[in-house]
Design a protein that fits this description.
Elements lengths: L1 E3 L5 E3 L10 E7 L5 E7 L7 E6 L6 E2 L8 E6 L5 E11 L6 E8 L7 E2 L6 E7 L5 E6 L10 E6 L7 E4 L8 E7 L6 E6 L7 E6 L11 E5 L12 H4 L18 E6 L12 E7 L18 E7 L4 E5 L33 E6 L20 E6 L12 E2 L3 E2 L12 E7 L6 E6 L4 E6 L5 E4 L11 E4 L44 H4 L1 H7 L9 H5 L12 H8 L35 H8 L8 H12 L24 H9 L5 H11 L20 H20 L3 H4 L7 H26 L8
Parallel strand pairs: 23-31
Antiparallel strand pairs: 1-2, 3-4, 4-5, 5-6, 7-8, 8-9, 9-10, 11-12, 12-13, 13-14, 15-16, 16-17, 17-18, 19-20, 20-21, 21-22, 23-28, 24-27, 24-29, 25-26, 29-30
Helix pairs in contact: 8-10
Organism: Luteolibacter algae
Protein name: Cytochrome c domain-containing protein
Keywords: Heme, Iron, Metal-binding
Length: 754
């Protein structure tokens, strides 16, 4: 605790808590100014839990518990409850190994912890808005590049009405963090940062009424020179993957800011917008490389900054390395209105409506003929619950382990619902399920895709004006009384005959698509056949995918480049800009066109064609499971002396970068189903080495017969030790979360892991 005298000099008044091997973080002050809420980790062996103390440091209360759980970013809510971010629903980053977090809420004493957000990645850095809503940062990347997908979102404290507030559709900034509404204004102060960096960057005051991307909404920026690092606000720039390195532009700053707080009249809740307390790097230049900060260069001090260009260093730690963060005024403050809870935990579903699917904010629906959209497809992108620490696949986006060509998600089609003639839809979906929506034509081919996600809470009805509505000035609804709302909500229908909407499975290429090729195509398109030289559609197992998937994707390019026709036009981990209708998917894929035109008398059934188009439209996914029994999906490495055998089989190509280059240019290297057909054998000039390589590939093929790889069954197969550990962790937290819901319904108290 520090005090600032009339002379402007700050003095350390009191140390409220001290842990020599621990960390205090994320403080919040109670509305009456008498309590401090914070997150603490006492040592490296401890976990982050929430605590509360009196403002004089007394009466420390331990509020949350649990092993291998991180509870951070707590804030007081107007109804007396507490909102925070936690790993109690453990999810892992799809391009790496670190754990993610979602929003949770609990009673003031730590009882009845309930999850209130369901994003497949992270929701964090929450703050309370003057109207009682919550603003937070969300990191997601459903069919989008991992870099620019960290914008600002809002929701009610009970998790209803999650909505994008700002960002998400431009390359830079790579992150928007530490946001707070400036009391008495409609503006927000936050940090614009980079993707691969610590949570610091430029401090900005933004006015959303002027726009949601680019420099237009920026009223003030510290330093002002950082404006040049903010991404361009135009479609061409933000729809091109050529600009993907812009996600780290903000790393080029010479100084960094963190944890801004608008100085204002606390009791009246207004008078802000001119002065800000903020942490600022004190060294003349900050250097940083993926989390490794040179000693002393990252030290932060507390600065008072104003919009007139003045900055005064208020306080810095006496420690030569440690900085100071998160300055907050201690005192009573105005209490925002408490938004009543509307979640009905006795229900397992909610409802979504669309007023008119043909409405958009720009060109995204301009080429779509009214009446042509017949269905909406509801798709889940399941969270990564496990990862394979033993192998990395990297075409454009690093995957631990391989899932798809360059897409980190897997997909689960929950079902389809009808669209009325006026473009409206009203339907029931599973509660707390992170879903995206596709608009489909009469052939159930995707016309436009939501490359983001949303949830509805139990019993909630949530809706939108149209496709990609404008959050700043949404267009007037064309349907005063939509036809879909004049009837009961639609139930999800099977997207293809035979699918069980009650038990949807993740889409798995080898068990879904390959049987169609086996039946209709490989009589010609196989090894040793003329058509197979043009396009091999064999189902033989390779590494890390099967042969036909390799062949199709090699002929489709490494990443999305636009709406031109490709063998398979997938968006992959695509650009952040909103794409126009028909920009990718089955309508832009040569494979579909050729099959529809009638390829040498091949006639697919409707179900077969819809399986192929459906798979392309969910972004050309391959694996249906994140679990991996074999190291990096490679059975050779699971053999005795696997590393040695793998090095002999692949030679110089055993190096990840060289293998990637070869596969992108020429396709698969090994064939575990018919080992003698492995292309890698043709690279072996030494007969003895070639014979050994063949024997090792055969040995791995036999192992795959004994213990199937995940693509062979789309079922849960024997897990690695890491899978078992992570799934056990998930099971424990799922049980505790279910007990909290039950206690909430019954009106009793339940304390997780206590």
């Amino acid at each position: 605790m520090i005090s600032i005298g009339e002379d402007g000099i700050a003095k350390r008044k009191k140390i409220l808590g001290e842990e020599k091997e621990g960390i205090f973080r994320d403080a919040d002050i109670s509305f009456d100014g008498k309590k401090i809420l914070y997150s603490m980790r006492r040592s490296k062996g401890d976990d982050y839990h929430l605590y509360e103390m009196d403002v004089d440091g007394g009466n420390v209360t331990h509020l949350t518990f649990g092993s291998m759980i991180a509870d951070v970013d707590p804030i007081y809510l107007p109804d007396g409850k507490i909102l925070f971010s936690s790993t109690r629903d453990p999810k892992f980053c799809q391009c790496n190994r670190h754990i993610s977090q979602n929003l949770f809420r609990m009673d003031a004493d730590g009882a009845n912890i309930l999850q209130v957000s369901g994003n497949g990645l992270s929701d964090f850095h929450s703050s309370l808005m003057p109207d009682g809503r919550v603003m937070y940062s969300r990191w997601e990347y459903v069919d989008r590049h991992f870099g620019p997908s960290l914008g600002l979102w809002t929701s009610n404290p009970d998790g209803t009405r999650h909505a994008l507030f700002m960002g998400n559709n431009a390359w830079s900034p790579g992150s928007m963090l530490d946001a707070r509404v400036i009391p008495g204004t409609d503006k927000v102060v936050c940090i614009y940062g980079a993707t691969h960096d610590l949570p610091w960057g430029a401090m900005v005051v933004v006015d959303r009424s002027k726009g949601m991307e680019g420099t237009e909404p920026i009223d003030h920026m510290w330093p002002d020179s950082a404006r040049r690092l903010v991404g361009e606000n135009n479609d061409a720039y933000n729809q091109s993957l050529q600009n993907r390195r812009s996600v780290d532009k903000m790393r080029n700053m010479k100084v960094r800011y963190e944890d801004p707080f608008p100085v204002h009249n606390l009791k009246e809740g207004k008078g802000g917008g001119y002065f800000f307390m903020v942490s600022k790097s004190l060294s003349p230049e900050v250097t940083h490389s993926y989390g490794k900060v040179p000693k002393g260069s990252g030290k932060m001090g507390i600065v008072l900054a104003d919009v007139f260009g003045n900055e005064v260093l208020v306080y810095e730690s006496g420690d030569p390395v440690l900085g100071t963060f998160g300055a907050l005024p201690i005192g009573p403050r105005k209490v925002p209105p408490a938004i009543p809870d509307t979640v009905d935990y006795t229900k397992d579903h909610g409802f979504l409506y669309v007023n008119d699917v043909y409405l958009g904010t720009g060109k995204e629906m301009a080429e779509v003929e009214r009446g042509s959209i017949k269905y909406l497809r509801i798709i889940d992108a399941p969270a990564r619950r496990t990862y394979d620490e033993r192998g990395v696949w990297n075409v454009d986006a690093q995957q631990v382990t391989a899932m798809n060509w360059n897409l980190t998600n897997n997909k689960r089609i929950l079902g389809d619902v009808p669209v009325e003639e006026d473009g409206s839809a009203f339907f029931k979906i599973p509660a707390d399920t992170f879903v995206q929506i596709h608009a489909l034509d009469e052939n159930k081919q995707m016309v436009q895709a939501m490359r983001s996600g949303t949830i509805v809470r139990p019993g909630e009805t949530q809706g939108c004006i149209g496709c990609h509505e404008d959050r700043v000035s949404a267009p007037s609804a064309t349907n005063a009384v939509p036809l879909a709302t004049k009837r009961a909500p639609s139930e999800l229908q099977a997207w293809i005959k035979g699918k069980d909407v009650k038990k949807p499975e993740p889409f798995n290429y080898l068990t879904e698509v390959q049987p169609i090729f086996d039946k209709n195509c490989i009589s010609c398109h196989d090894h040793g056949k003329e058509a197979g030289e043009i396009l091999n559609l064999s189902g033989d197992l390779s590494f890390p995918f099967n042969v036909s998937y390799h062949e199709l994707m090699v002929r489709s390019g490494a990443r999305y480049s636009g709406p031109e026709e490709k063998m398979v036009n997938f968006v992959g981990d695509g650009p952040p800009g909103v794409l126009p209708a028909f920009a990718w998917g089955s309508h832009r894929s040569k494979l579909v066109r050729v099959l529809k035109e009638g390829h040498h008398g091949v006639e697919l059934s409707d179900a077969e064609m819809q399986t192929i188009t459906g798979r392309i439209d969910v972004n050309a996914v391959y694996y249906g499971s994140y679990t991996s029994y074999y190291p990096g999906r490679n059975p050779i490495l699971a053999l005795k002396d696997g590393k040695k055998k793998n090095d002999l089989v692949f030679g110089d190509l055993a190096e990840a970068g060289k293998m990637k280059e070869h596969i992108l240019g020429k396709g698969h290297l090994v064939n575990f189903s018919r080992p003698e057909l492995s292309p890698v054998l043709d690279m072996k000039r030494n007969p003895e080495e070639r014979a050994l390589a063949l024997s090792y590939i055969k040995e791995a093929g036999e192992l795959l017969k004994e213990i199937p790889r995940e693509d062979q069954t789309n079922l849960e197969v024997p897990k690695s030790a890491m899978d078992l550990h992570n799934l056990g962790r998930l099971g424990a937290t799922k049980h505790e979360n279910a007990e909290s819901v039950k206690a909430y319904i019954d009106g009793i108290k339940y304390y997780q892991f206590k």
